[in-house]
Amino acid sequence: MTSDVLPGPVQETGEIFDVTRLGEYTQFTVVAPGVARGFKPGQFVAIAVGGRDTSMLLRRSFALYGVQPGAEFAGTIQFVVAAKGGGTEWLLRRQIGDTLDLVGPLGVPFPLPRASVPAVLVGGGYGTAPLLPLAQVLLAQGSDVEMIVGAATASRLFGEMQAKRIIGKVTVTTDDGTAGQRGWVTDPLPSAIERLGAEIVYACGPMGMLRAVGEVAGAHAIPAQVAVEESMACGIGVCMTCVLPVRDGDGVSRFVRSCVEGPVFDAGRIRWADVGTVPADLFGADGN
Amino acid sequence: MTSDVLPGPVQETGEIFDVTRLGEYTQFTVVAPGVARGFKPGQFVAIAVGGRDTSMLLRRSFALYGVQPGAEFAGTIQFVVAAKGGGTEWLLRRQIGDTLDLVGPLGVPFPLPRASVPAVLVGGGYGTAPLLPLAQVLLAQGSDVEMIVGAATASRLFGEMQAKRIIGKVTVTTDDGTAGQRGWVTDPLPSAIERLGAEIVYACGPMGMLRAVGEVAGAHAIPAQVAVEESMACGIGVCMTCVLPVRDGDGVSRFVRSCVEGPVFDAGRIRWADVGTVPADLFGADGN
Amino acid sequence: MGTPTVDISTSLASFELPNPVLTASGCAAAGRELSPFFDVAELGGIVTKSIMMKPRSGRSTPRMAETPSGMLNSIGLQGPGVDSFIEHDLKWLHESGARTVVSIAGHNTDEFVALARRLYDQPMDLLEVNISCPNVENRGQVFACDAIAATRVISAVRRAANPNVPIFAKLTPDVTDIGYIARAVAEAGADGISLINTLLGLVIDLDTLRPALGGVTGGLSGPAIRPVALRCVWQVHQAVPHLPLLGMGGIKTGKDALQFILAGASAVSVGTAVFHDPTAPIRIIAELSDELAARGFSSLRDAIGFAHLSSEQQAAYFAAQTAVPVGR
Amino acid sequence: MGTPTVDISTSLASFELPNPVLTASGCAAAGRELSPFFDVAELGGIVTKSIMMKPRSGRSTPRMAETPSGMLNSIGLQGPGVDSFIEHDLKWLHESGARTVVSIAGHNTDEFVALARRLYDQPMDLLEVNISCPNVENRGQVFACDAIAATRVISAVRRAANPNVPIFAKLTPDVTDIGYIARAVAEAGADGISLINTLLGLVIDLDTLRPALGGVTGGLSGPAIRPVALRCVWQVHQAVPHLPLLGMGGIKTGKDALQFILAGASAVSVGTAVFHDPTAPIRIIAELSDELAARGFSSLRDAIGFAHLSSEQQAAYFAAQTAVPVGR
Ligand SMILES: Cc1cc2nc3c(=O)[nH]c(=O)nc-3n(C[C@H](O)[C@H](O)[C@H](O)COP(=O)(O)OP(=O)(O)OC[C@H]3O[C@@H](n4cnc5c(N)ncnc54)[C@H](O)[C@@H]3O)c2cc1C
Ligand SMILES: Cc1cc2nc3c(=O)[nH]c(=O)nc-3n(C[C@H](O)[C@H](O)[C@H](O)COP(=O)(O)OP(=O)(O)OC[C@H]3O[C@@H](n4cnc5c(N)ncnc54)[C@H](O)[C@@H]3O)c2cc1C
Ligand SMILES: Cc1cc2nc3c(=O)[nH]c(=O)nc-3n(C[C@H](O)[C@H](O)[C@H](O)COP(=O)(O)O)c2cc1C
Ligand SMILES: Cc1cc2nc3c(=O)[nH]c(=O)nc-3n(C[C@H](O)[C@H](O)[C@H](O)COP(=O)(O)O)c2cc1C
Ligand code: FES
Ligand code: FES
Fold first, then answer.
1. Which of C32, C66, C64, C60 minimizes the C-alpha distance to C46?
2. Spans of chain C below 70 pLDDT
3. Per residue in B49-101, pLDDT tens?
4. pLDDT (0 to 100) of residue A74
5. Which atom of ligand 3 has the smallest separation from the CA of C132?
6. Whose CA is nearest to atom 19 of ligand 1?
7. Per CATH, is A110-229 categorized as 3.40.50.80?
């Protein structure tokens, strides 16, 4: 795994270049050369919502994909938004030509293998988004890549077309069987790992899915690098709201900030069962 | 003076039909049949600002004019907005087709003479607005009407063209002489009163101007009906923020709500020098 | 939402209400000004502006300043005095068929007692004792900031008031330990507690370079204070679990009201939101009912204090419900 | 604005600052994460997150909930312990040339004393004593809620700390009388006062029907609390007019900062606003300077507590200024 020194995040005002509805999601393309410049797959952008005089104080985070540092859409970023509460609904009312206040790129990207290794990518819902540029990078490295994308229902699938275009094929699952095979992304995962002889799994999606993906990878004795989604007040590492209990190399578990030390973690290091608690053996638990 | 029983205020959503820049002001025409129906000159509308998730909790008030209960612009209202802070700036970013959340018509209108009497109307800045429909009503009653409009500078004048169209002529003053005669609206007022043999003065504008107009009218032993602009939290009479010390018929002074018992008052009854204090002889001052 | 109907009736001690949404004292005058917007008899009740014995002019203007998601006010309890209030306001409310909560305020214990006596035979459903106002006998310290002063007023009012009318003590959040004050007024005989009154705040006017309000400081209300209000309801529900609470502070929607119910309030008052939306109280009744139904509650009473239950207790409740919860 | 330049230097006791804008404890970590956005040495100072003797994991997640114009947090003072803090954080700050305010927190008086000793020789400009945290020796009551506990900590820290480093007591607004607490810590030897810490609040999660935060209650910060913060600064300036105050609570703009200065603060901390806008502190320096100039002040120091002056005193000040005030 390599660990590049990245250019730091920047704060910039980006103009919305395109807004496209994709099923239940909306894809934004925004001119933001500063954010685009430093980007690596797995990173995210934090966006101010609500405009002047808003009561919504905190930025909202979105995984980046489709970043074009050069070429036709020079200096643009793309991200996809699902309606949730006031912040995303405000974003969904923005139009082409409106501007957004952005901070990014933020977070640690997916670690890349030094050489080409076969990899399975697993995306749940809009969690597929950051896996698309990752697939491109892996393919460019000469890695064999398979991708599984899943969602509760067909309209919540994201990126299966792009994935197909990039990789050539894609496996789709939905909980209700409205698209692809009925079931969870973890159903076709073992055979994909085996078929490909995969040495790594990458995943992004809901916590429950990431945990399950981590378990499947573990059962195959390969690592899973997963991008989590924790509630974040600052996104830049100063507030300590976004922590997860993570085991480090020498076995000590700590509360680790998922905004600057994540959002990508080795699934095997996250203490999934202890999320939302303070396990007694956590570093500093006795200092409370 | 007649005192009609008015239909109560309504809350309704109005669509913006037109937005026109007029000097430093912006005129809004909004489709709002419920507000338009009950309207009488001197009343105002309270508008929610900032949209969903705004931090601005209180409505902003604007004097109504150009209300068209029938005819071509059926059920529309007009008001004019001057940029001040967050609320008016939000309004000034609204466009044709956007909707506004309105409550109105609010307040006591200008009392009308039973028969035709000569009247001078005095407007300061956007305070001219409510005098325009008043002039129309007075003229329709057969009253002789003169109008004086003033402002600090030419770009802050409002309604002098409409006034001219309605009345035939208008006297203009500006503090800096950039339009009309240099000076205050009270400079040409005495001669207007005398020329016309006016029996009443109507005015709307800043507090200092209203006080001065009241004094000139008083010196001519005629009443001045003035529309004040007090800071209002509710606009509908439930909160008691908008009070002025006002002397009533039997000489007792009280704190009176300018939203429901005003905004139009007999200038002679307002205790101008005591605004912002609790005069010792005010009704209930000893109960504090 | 085509959800099953929920029984939203509730009670504040012996006062039975068909629904749990009232106005807040000082934010609806005595109801009349709201009648162009809706029928005041449809609300859980109208809480009138705190009334004192004598007419009172209140503070000098400016009396309000808008703040982020809130506002400051310094009205200073302007009012016509209890006699005029009875003759005009209470009469109007009675004729309108509105359920009525009368809020009283006094300079000292005697004035509170005199008010309770004067109102003894008047038509009303509940007496709210606003002890979040200054006590002239103790250097103007607010009664509800001092357990002893609060106790004295509440026990005296309880003795003086009509025994058929429940009395609620209205508390200020500006204290070190609101649970302690709540226990004190409960022991003094309060039948329930209203909370919270406004937080003391200040704004500087950047044009005059002086405090924006004529009264220098003022009371902060609106959604800005909602988390503080919810914390107070939570703590007071734990301190005096047997007492009914009338919760308020920044309620704008049915969802906001539901938070107060879950935290332990039996009913809610809607204050500052009325200034923004005169129909807010009536809208919130319907919204709250929908929110309860969507979460599988068959009655509002079941939801009171529900957030204090463990996840297991909560699950057991829903398992025992016959109605299939919608959206859970 | 092409306004005359204003001298915006200020001081917090013996700590001299070129400008009055600092970060707030817990809202800037130890400064390093802000360095991609601006040079931390340009600020009035960095106030570090409250540090304790031992490493501390803090509370369980969820640790935050957004509220109208504010947020609740329940971090629970997660931190690496003072040794690691000195070795990594303080060292980095020193090397960066940042003026540094170290915030300390303890479970009991002894821990505060141990921290003051451990930090005796470390490079820092001011010690902020966060007594708005629970005292394990008194049923978890917050030190700053109890004048005696507060006094004990402050006098012990004043004795133990390097005499060349001023110490500021950081107070909570959740008390009945903040002026009283301020006088107590002043008598105990505090060289100044930082205020306010967060207000205790609660939010109910309407999906889980339980408190939204892992820690049940949390601290409310952001513009929502600004009027409360300004009121506290106003009251404490009146209670201890000779003590310098570091004001904070909801500051987002230069105008907000100016309100605090006029109310009596010698400098301000910017907290939650950093989460929305990482460059807020540096932006606010320039904005504040412009706002002062536009009102005819020739120096920031002249504006400190200016809102307490009568209109006549204010007019006399401006009349004596040689510079022609812009926009007045
Ligand atoms: C690293 C990261 C990447 C993300 N990528 C995407 C993406 O690509 N597309 C997308 O649609 N959404 C993404 N999310 C989730 C997105 O940030 C939330 O849906 C959004 O913040 C909700 O804001 P709201 O105002 O609409 O909802 P509300 O529920 O009103 O938000 C209230 C508060 O809770 C926080 N919050 C609510 N839901 C979440 C959540 N799921 N995760 C984190 N914080 C939350 C909000 O940020 C806000 O502070 C991502 C989140 C993180 C942390
Ligand atoms: C009866 C009445 C009629 C009015 N008619 C007009 C009109 O026709 N055209 C027009 O441009 N303006 C009019 N105003 C003034 C207008 O309401 C204010 O300019 C506006 O409220 C300012 O809001 P803001 O958010 O832009 O300013 P801010 O200063 O940010 O407002 C902060 C708070 O102060 C209140 N406030 C600020 N200035 C005033 C003011 N001058 N009067 C009352 N409250 C104020 C606001 O309502 C708000 O609650 C009228 C006011 C009243 C009371
Ligand atoms: C303008 C105004 C006047 C008020 N007057 C009173 C009063 O007379 N008596 C009282 O007990 N509370 C009074 N309050 C407090 C409210 O009843 C309520 O407790 C508080 O505003 C919090 O609720 P809210 O955020 O919904 O407004 C007043 C509040 C406002 C805004
Ligand atoms: C996430 C977070 C963490 C905080 N941690 C601390 C802390 O460790 N020590 C402290 O004294 N104050 C802490 N505070 C309080 C702030 O320093 C500040 O007093 C308060 O937030 C009000 O200022 P603001 O509204 O500008 O944020 C914290 C605040 C927040 C939001
Ligand atoms: S979100 Fe603030 S530290 Fe991660
Ligand atoms: S603005 Fe509320 S009573 Fe007039």
1. C32
2. 1-4, 322-328
3. 999 999 999 999 999 998 876 656 679 999 999 999 999 999 999 999 999 99
4. 75
5. 11
6. A84
7. yes
Q: Which residue among B11, B58, B283 places its CB closest to the CB of C275? A: B58
pLDDT at C321: 84
Question: ipTM score here?
Answer: 0.96
**Does a structural domain hold residue D170?**
yes
Q: How many independent structural domains does chain D possess?
A: 1
The H or E element containing residue C112 is helix C109-118
For the segment A236-269, what is each residue's pLDDT rounded down to a tens digit? 999 999 999 999 988 899 999 999 999 999 999 9
Burial of D312 (0-12, 13-18, 19+ CB in 10 A): exposed
CA–CA dist D268, D196 (Å, integer) = 11
Q: Specify the amino acid at residue B272.
A: W
- Residue C133 annotated among the catalytic residues of the structure: yes
How far is A82 from A125, CA to CA, in rounded Å? 9
Contacts of D238 (CB under 8 A, 6+ apart): D179, D264, D308
CB contacts under 8 A, C 267-326 vs D, are 291, 295, 306-307, 311, 314
pTM recorded for the entire structure: 0.96
pLDDT in tens, B232-287: 999 999 999 999 999 998 889 999 999 999 999 999 999 999 999 999 999 999 88
String of DSSP letters for A176-219: TSSSSEES-TTTTHHHHHHHHT-SEEEEES-HHHHHHHHHHHHH
Tokens of A23: 């099923």
CATH of the domain at D51: 3.20.20.70
- Residue D14's domain comprises 10-320
pLDDT value of position B3: 39
Class of domain B10-106 (CATH, top level): mainly beta
Domain-embedded: residue D141:
yes
Contact in structure between A6 and A26 (CB atoms under 8 Å): no
> How would residue A70 be classed by pLDDT, with cut points 50, 70 and 90?
low
Q: Is C200 on the interface with D (CB under 8 A)?
A: yes
Domain limits, chain B: 10-106, 110-229, 234-288
